[in-house]
Design brief:
Blueprint (H helix, E strand, L loop, with lengths): L10 E4 L6 H12 L9 E5 L7 H12 L2 E7 L2 E5 L22 E6 L4 E3 L19 E7 L7 E6 L1 E3 L7 H5 L2 E3 L2 E7 L22 E6 L1 H14 L7 H13 L13 E10 L12 E10 L9 E7 L20 H9 L7 E5 L5 E4 L3 E7 L5 E5 L6 H9 L11 H6 L8 H12 L4 E3 L4 H6 L3 E8 L3 E11 L8 E4 L3 H18 L11 H10 L4 E6 L7 E3 L1
Parallel strand pairs: 1-2, 15-16, 15-22, 19-20
Antiparallel strand pairs: 2-5, 3-4, 3-5, 6-9, 7-8, 7-14, 10-13, 11-12, 11-13, 12-24, 13-14, 16-17, 18-19, 18-21, 21-22, 22-23, 24-25
Helix pairs in contact: 4-5
């Protein structure tokens, strides 16, 4: 199994400084032809003829059109940085440390057209997920030739695809993951008030660490999603190593010491050639990309309004994290936000029996007040919990509406995604002595049961988001909802505390949670011991060590 480690060059090509740009480019073209067809093979070019102007840019773009990737290795990124555009002082365009002036190139055969782009300044505070070009991305290919997945770390860029021959575009043969990294400095050398837009990332290179939450869970779910679409799954270790390599060489994009700013990592696998006919692809590509972001839906002290739509159902493939689950909700979400007489930012779907499923891209939790006044959690069943659902109904804890539906209900397949954050909340709550019940929650129950005093969503990007109000309608066309607000003060405080606990767990800071006594902190520490992967950042701005 290949690993995303640095490949040794097949050949080294020193360029005579007396050669003109056209002569040097011709020599490079002749040399790289030797590795054409060998995905991942590298030619090292010493003393390259880099110069400002269209001539050098045109040559790099020519190589890219032939399936090669050109990058400039530097001390803290041996895979290489963007080189297609050169400043007047001889440095390459893009966000980087000023003293980085590379003297060699790595030309790697990718076998696909990747148009590389200069790295951008980070935008740490932006709400939601907004794509940008960082330093590097990973591209892995499975060409059905017996070699398995071949990983290459490249400058960030855009892949060229043949539209009608790409199964991901034609038939939605595509799955993805989402994960979060959070940064923490040991001792900040730059005060928050002293940071400027021109130097937002230098603080990232004081002594500190980056924490990645439940990486192995993401790897397992990614493999499961791939298999559900007939794609070759990525080996768990290859997923983790590639993931960490991309985080490592985009370290300057990790927001430090800010619980409301994180680095989002998006692995994506999709079918390529073979899309003209309704069949599995012949070749596959997997990419790992990153970008910083701020709050996703709402912050700790705010809440969202969502539409509860009884006639809106989760797709049959909803139990996997695949592309086709999300596009059917785009138009509805846009209409709710921009055109509805009663605006909402998200919607809650229900199954054919009228039981809550999940929000458009987040799991659902209800906060319920028991007879003794204590709070407990309810959460709807998700895919893979059919046996628990069966036991729930057989125990008679559910009132059957129609007798002929009994057998269907008992065998009902669930279509909600097994959320990693939902799983974590359930385990955290159990450790802290908070009762959690997986169960069916009906449309009518959610709209009228006074014991339900709070609702919140959970997801990778959002963490925990409180729902301040639900708008209840029978179908998508109805824009005259009955509205239920969730304004119980103790419930709101409970959700905030849970938000703080999850944030502390995700940042590897369980020991300092003020809401918990020593016994509960120790129990939570023991529970989450293996959840975090740490990336150590050193003063020298170069090597980064990894530890689980």
């Amino acid at each position: 199994m290949s690993r995303p480690s640095l490949s040794e060059p097949t050949e080294r090509l020193p360029i005579d400084s007396q050669r003109t740009l056209p002569e040097a480019c011709e020599e490079i073209l002749k040399t790289v032809e030797k590795i054409r067809g060998q995905v991942g093979a590298v030619i090292a070019v010493e003393n390259p003829p880099v110069a400002p102007g269209w001539g050098w840019t045109a040559f790099v773009r020519l190589l890219e059109s032939l399936g090669f990737v050109v990058a400039a290795p530097v001390e803290n990124n041996p895979h290489g940085l963007f080189v297609a555009e050169v400043e007047n002082d001889g440095t390459f365009k893009g966000h980087r440390v000023p003293e980085e002036k590379p003297t060699s190139l790595r030309i790697t055969y990718l076998g696909r057209t990747l148009t590389t782009r200069p790295s951008e300044l980070p935008r740490h505070g932006e709400k939601g997920l907004n794509y940008m070009h960082p330093h590097v991305m990973a591209i892995l290919q499975e060409n059905n030739d017996g070699q398995g997945w071949i990983p290459v770390i490249t400058p960030s860029g855009e892949l060229g695809l043949k539209i009608s021959n790409t199964t991901a575009i034609q038939y939605a043969q595509s799955g993805f993951e989402g994960a979060v990294a959070m940064g923490k400095t040991a001792e900040s050398e730059v005060a928050e008030s002293e940071r400027t837009e021109a130097e937002p990332l230098e603080v990232s290179f004081v002594n500190g660490e980056v924490t990645i939450f439940r990486l192995e869970e993401n790897a397992k779910r990614f493999a499961k999603s791939a298999e559900s679409l007939g794609m070759p799954p990525l080996d768990i270790e290859l997923f983790k190593q590639t993931f960490l390599e991309v985080v490592k060489y985009n370290a300057r994009y990790i927001p430090m010491d800010n619980p409301n700013a994180k680095l989002y990592i998006r692995p994506c696998m999709f079918g390529c050639e073979g899309g003209a006919g309704a069949a599995r692809a012949k070749r596959y590509v997997c990419t790992f990309e990153v970008f910083p972001y701020g709050d996703y839906l709402a912050g700790r002290d705010s809440a969202i309004t969502a539409r509860a739509i009884k006639g809106k159902h989760r797709p049959q493939s909803g139990g996997e994290k695949v592309a086709s689950n999300y596009a059917p909700g785009f138009k509805l979400k846009e209409w709710l936000r921009n055109e509805s007489q009663h605006p909402a930012v998200d919607y809650l779907s229900f199954d054919e029996n009228g039981n809550a499923e999940e929000f458009s891209s987040c799991s659902c939790f209800c906060l319920v007040k028991g007879e003794d006044g204590a709070l407990k959690l309810w959460t709807p069943f998700v895919a893979g919990e059919e046996e628990e659902s069966r036991k729930f109904h057989q125990n008679g804890d559910y009132t059957m509406v129609m007798e002929q539906f009994d057998s269907y209900r008992l065998e009902q397949k669930r279509h909600s995604l097994p959320s990693i954050t939902r799983k974590s909340i359930i385990e955290i709550a159990g450790t802290l002595g908070i009762p959690v019940e997986k169960r069916d929650i009906s449309f009518e129950q959610l709209s009228t049961d006074k014991n339900i005093v709070g609702v919140f969503t959970t997801g990778t990007a959002a963490g925990i988001t409180r729902v301040g109000a639900l708008q209840f309608v029978q179908n998508e066309e109805n824009d005259d909802p009955s509205i239920r607000e969730f304004i119980d003060p103790p419930a709101q405080e409970f959700i905030k505390k849970l938000y703080d606990i999850l944030t502390a767990v995700r940042s590897g800071n369980v020991k300092n949670i003020p809401e918990l006594d020593e016994t509960k902190r120790e129990a939570l520490q023991a529970l989450t011991e293996g959840w975090i992967t740490k990336v150590k950042i050193g003063d020298d701005k170069s090597g980064i060590s990894l530890e689980s």
